[in-house]
Amino acid sequence: MTAVDAAAQAAARAASTPTTREERAGWLEALAAAIEADRAGLVALARAETHLSEARLDGEVTRTAAQLRFFAGVAREGGYLEAVVESPDPSLVPPRPDLRRMLRPLGPVAVYTASNFPFAFSVLGNDTASALAAGCPVIVKAHPGHPELSRRTARLAADVLPDGWFALVEGMEAGVELVRHPQVCAAGFTGSVRGGRALFDIAVSRPDPIPFYGELGSINPVVVTRAAAAERAADIAAGLVGSFTRDAGQYCTKPGLVFVPEGGGVEDAVRQALGGAPASRQLTPGMTEAFADGVAGLAAHPGVEVLRASATEGESAPAVALLAASTFLADPHSFLAECFGPLTVVVAYRDDELDAVVGALEPSLTATIHRGAGEDVTALAAALTPLAGRLLFDGWPTGVAIGWAQHHGGGWPSTTASIHTSVGATATRRWLTPIAYQDAPQDVLPPELRDGNPLRIPRRDS
User: Fold this and answer.
1) How many CB atoms are closer than 10 A to CB 403?
2) 215 carries an active-site annotation
3) Which residues fall within 8 angstroms of residue 243, CB to CB, at 6 or more apart?
4) Among 101, 29, 43, 28, which residue's Cα sits nearest to residue 440?
5) Cα 382 to chain center, whole Å?
6) Which is the catalytic residue, given 49, 252, 267, 353?
7) Exactly one of 49, 215, 315, 362 is catalytic; which is it?
8) What is the Cα–Cα distance from 310 to 275, expressed in whole angstroms?
9) CATH 3.40.605.10: which residues of the chain?
10) In Å, what is the CA distance from 82 to each residue of 70, 327, 429?
11) Directed axis angle between helix 21-37 and helix 39-50, to 10°?
12) Could you tell me where in the chain the CATH 3.40.309.10 domains are found?
């Protein structure tokens, strides 16, 4: 029996025993307390493996604990169940029986962790927290970029969670076996388009296909209007450089493609702001090489000027590729691929080119508009809305708040399932499926659907 098979069989046994929302909320709160209690050791280990700063990692532990407690609150509140009770009505055509509907957990799920967030999107990150809240045991496939940290975090989880509710597996072969395993009912992934697409294809080609929720590549376009550039070109440039270089440029929401008005002053301001941008080390040598190749490929493209900040040996220098809208429109696909690391592409447009450049975009996790004071950008917002899961105004997309209204998703290639999110309360929806009861006796019904709403959850009754 392989490690994956042992974990999957144990998870299936755990899933067969019902748990209460209160029990699972308690587990999540205990996990939050456990990682906070081991904060110093976890941060030191993460620092050694990822090269990210101590302050960044310490803040990420805080975020991860907050996520776990947030999903404890989601589980307790119960609204995520979408419970509905409809009383019989023989006057309807056809007559309506007693119908009661809610969401139930799918069963064991696989979670593939991210490289760039060793806590918040890793072993006890968003996917794990939301799945546990939903009532699904979790098998985590560790990222090879921080293996010791993954193991240490997994030991904390094993000390808190009951048998079968959590397991960690490692290695590429284990990752493939996991998504194929017949006991695994769904999978969540954060990573590259190539890796995610390979696992997605396996998931949907199984004898019993399963949902695969992949967060993949995202360019996160930004449009700066002429009015915005006239008002605050320097501030926009400083914000852009701060955003795309933040934490080695390793954010899935990094603004990777920015449209600025030709002659509006933003390009010159970016040149100045880039001079003070910090260099950084990427997580692995492979990522460092891929970043260098991406920058070199842009620099070799006719009509592209690449600006680079300073860096020492082993570091990745922040870079900006400057080009005209005509160059972008002649070969848009060359500029729509995500380059992981501190790089952004700045495209200067004439006013009569803006509709065309926006029309050439692919879906992303986010899109951003920088507008002038009182400027009407209704038409621009309407053009960008179908392309993004989150539309921002006068800000930068790096940083994804945890909340009930958050949506962290988008169309292909940013995700494999645009209707779902990996951040926020509705992240639980990925791990749930509906069940409707017709004329069921009270003792068969889950407590959430019984007469009188004994658990006082948000529920539609009619």
Assistant:
1) 11
2) yes
3) 254, 255, 396, 397, 398
4) 101
5) 24
6) 252
7) 215
8) 8
9) 3-216+415-461
10) 18, 49, 10
11) 70
12) 221-393
Direct distance between the N- and C-terminal alpha carbons of the chain, in angstroms, rounded to an integer: 51
Topology given in CATH for the domain delimited by 221-393? Aldehyde Dehydrogenase; Chain A, domain 2 (3.40.309)
Task: Give yes or no for a cis peptide into 318 (omega within 30° of 0).
Answer: no
Domain 3-216+415-461 of CATH type 3.90.1570.10 = no
Q: Where are the alpha helices (DSSP H) in 88-244?
A: 126-134, 147-160, 172-180, 193-205, 226-244
Q: How far is CA 101 from the centre of its chain?
A: 29
Residues 115, 119, 124, 126: is their CA dihedral positive or negative?
negative
pTM, to two decimals: 0.94
At residue 423, φ and ψ (nearest 5 deg) are -130, 140
pLDDT digit of tens for each residue in the chain (462 aa)? 899 999 999 999 999 999 999 999 999 999 999 999 999 999 999 999 998 899 999 999 999 999 999 999 999 999 999 999 999 999 999 999 999 999 999 999 999 999 889 999 999 999 999 999 999 999 999 999 999 999 999 999 999 999 999 999 999 999 999 999 999 999 999 999 999 999 999 999 999 999 999 999 899 999 999 999 999 999 999 999 999 999 878 889 999 999 999 999 999 999 999 988 888 888 888 888 888 899 999 999 999 999 998 888 878 889 999 999 999 999 999 999 888 889 999 999 999 999 999 999 999 999 999 999 999 999 999 999 999 999 999 999 998 999 999 999 999 999 999 999 999 999 999 999 999 999 999 999 999 999 999 999 999 999
C-alpha of 80 from chain center: 19
